[in-house]
Each structure stands twice: as structure tokens, then as C-alpha cells.
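User: Can you predict the 3D structure for this chain?
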Amino acid sequence: MITANLPIFKASLDLTVYVDKIVKNFEKYHKYTFGEDLRVYSKNILFLINRANISKDKQRVEYITKLRDRCEDLKMLILLGKELKAFKSFNQFQYISKLTVDVAKQSQNWLNYCARILK
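Assistant: Here is the predicted structure, written as C-alpha cells:
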């Protein structure tokens, strides 16, 4: 199965590209601290999707669980960014939150599906 064809991968890729786009416009302080964390977390989500997709059974469930947890961590990081006023506008915060929630929901659905199959 090709990872690039998965809806969760496409959503995560959109998230990662958007993160890179907005971090470029952060103030210098946030760009190299908070912005770097956003970039790392969003890329890790992409990598976990790929690893989960090429893995088998129980290992796949482990990767998807890590993926779901990483999405939750990213949601918390985004909330922190809002409090730090790192985002240039509320629309940036709102859109990145929407993208992250979408990926998190898909990861939870994928985890539920894999758990049902393994039973």
C-alpha cells in the first residue's frame, strides 16, 4: 500500500506544509523555539503514518497509538502557541487547530479499526 494515497497522510502533509508556511512569519523568538517544535511534531506525525502503514498487526497498532498521542501533543502545543501569541492571527490558530484535529480524528479511527481486526 502506498502511504501517499492515504487520506490521513494527505491531511498530515497539508498540516506540515501549513506549519512551515506560518512559522516562516513568526517573530524571531518564536520562530526558533516554538516554531521549531511545531515543525518537528508535524514531521513526526508524517513519519509515524508511514511507519504504521508499512508495519504489520501489533506493531501497526503501536505506531498508530504513538501517532494519536503525537497528535494530542501537537494540539497542546498549538494551544500553548495561542497563549504565547505566537500566531499572527486568530485565523492561523483556528486553521492549524482544524488541521490537527482532523488528523487526530483519523488516527483514532484508524486505531479503532486496527484494534477491531486484531480481536
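The chain has five helices and no strands. Residues 87 and 93 are 6 Å apart (CA to CA).
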